[in-house]
């Protein structure tokens, strides 16, 4: 029972990342009709926003180490600690949460620039052209990050107060042996909040209602005198923010490197296909479902029976879904069927 609970939590945690990226992919496809293979790169850029904030907050000055008296020794001490003492230390410790506030406007501007500068010119082009140009853009972003930050993963810790594990076994009456990292629980909660916020925005605001109407019939909405294109541009920016925030919050779980976006993109695109192209609910449901399946497939008991199953389980499920229901679990009729 303990192992099953931990695997479910692992699956929900990983599924949260898949769902957030897939949600952005589906938003872009549903509104603009663009298959955006650069969306994983936005996840990576969000992660490196957190890395950049940490590097800025830890800018240091060489000062004399007073603890060594035999000779003159120097150590690096962050400016924030020199200026603000213990409060500066706490600011550095909370670099990841601080990065969330900073990443929102940055990712919004990046998303708007991408849509205005490149994506809008491929609205009516074949999907193959869209995939090629966005995939090329993703590679360019990867190489830029690699040139600035190097090829190695960069550890970015969570705040010390949530660096340990939560005694979920005690809370659920399963004993003290069942624990789970606090930050992973926070990430799961964060994923749920962001997903709820996006759905609430689309469902209960006038802006969201126009966007949903435009997803179904753009021409009719345009004939009503509504500037649909401007709203869709903003939606692209929102999708970039969602992907970026997913990346920011994931850095304490997986130290970011330049190709992490492509790793998550491939899996998230499979999630979108399984959930159904253009279906927001399908993308979220498939993200969590496939995350749980992948988590259980990674158990040693399963891998002993079928070696490597954890690496291919998502693709096997996708193949079965596409064969049985080509439009995905919750896909709309006619989407990607031309």
UniProtKB/TrEMBL annotation:
It comes from the Bacteria. Belongs to the binding-protein-dependent transport system permease family. LivHM subfamily. The keyword Membrane applies. The chain crosses the membrane at residues 15-35, 42-61, 91-110, 161-180, 187-211, 231-252, 264-293, 305-324. It is found in: Cell inner membrane. Its main location: membrane. It holds the Pfam family BPD_transp_2. This is Branched-chain amino acid ABC transporter permease. Keywords: Amino-acid transport, Cell membrane, Membrane, Transmembrane, Transmembrane helix, Transport. It comes from Sedimenticola selenatireducens. It is a multi-pass membrane protein. GO terms for molecular function: transmembrane transporter activity.
């Amino acid at each position: 029972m303990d192992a099953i609970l931990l695997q479910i939590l692992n699956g929900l945690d990983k599924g949260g990342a898949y769902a957030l990226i897939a949600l952005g992919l589906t938003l872009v496809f549903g509104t603009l009709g663009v298959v955006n293979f650069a969306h994983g790169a936005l996840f990576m850029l969000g992660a490196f926003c957190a890395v950049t904030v940490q590097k800025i907050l830890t800018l240091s000055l060489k000062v004399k180490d007073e603890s060594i008296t035999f000779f003159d020794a120097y150590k690096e001490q962050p400016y924030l600690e020199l200026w603000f003492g213990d409060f500066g230390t706490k600011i550095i410790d909370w670099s990841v949460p601080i990065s969330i506030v900073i990443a929102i406007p940055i990712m919004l501007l990046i998303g708007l620039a991408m849509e205005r500068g490149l994506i809008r010119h491929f609205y009516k082009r074949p999907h193959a052209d869209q995939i090629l140009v966005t995939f090329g853009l993703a590679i360019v972003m990867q190489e830029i990050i690699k040139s600035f930050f190097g090829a190695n993963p960069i550890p970015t810790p969570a705040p010390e107060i949530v660096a340990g594990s939560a005694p979920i076994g005690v809370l659920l009456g399963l004993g003290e042996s069942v624990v789970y990292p606090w930050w992973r629980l926070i990430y799961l909660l964060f994923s749920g909040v962001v997903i709820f916020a996006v759905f609430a925005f689309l469902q209960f605001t006038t802006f969201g209602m126009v966007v949903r109407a435009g997803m179904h019939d753009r021409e009719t909405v345009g004939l009503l005198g509504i500037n649909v294109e401007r709203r869709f541009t903003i939606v692209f920016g929102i999708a970039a923010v969602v992907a970026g925030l997913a990346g920011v919050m994931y850095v304490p779980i997986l130290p970011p490197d330049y190709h992490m976006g492509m790793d998550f993109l491939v899996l998230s695109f499979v999630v979108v296909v399984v959930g159904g192209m253009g279906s927001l609910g399908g993308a979220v449901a498939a993200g969590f479902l496939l995350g749980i399946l992948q988590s259980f497939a990674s158990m040693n008991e399963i891998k002993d029976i079928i070696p490597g199953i954890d690496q291919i389980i998502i693709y096997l499920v996708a193949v079965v879904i596409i064969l049985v229901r080509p439009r995905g679990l919750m896909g709309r009729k006619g989407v990607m069927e031309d």
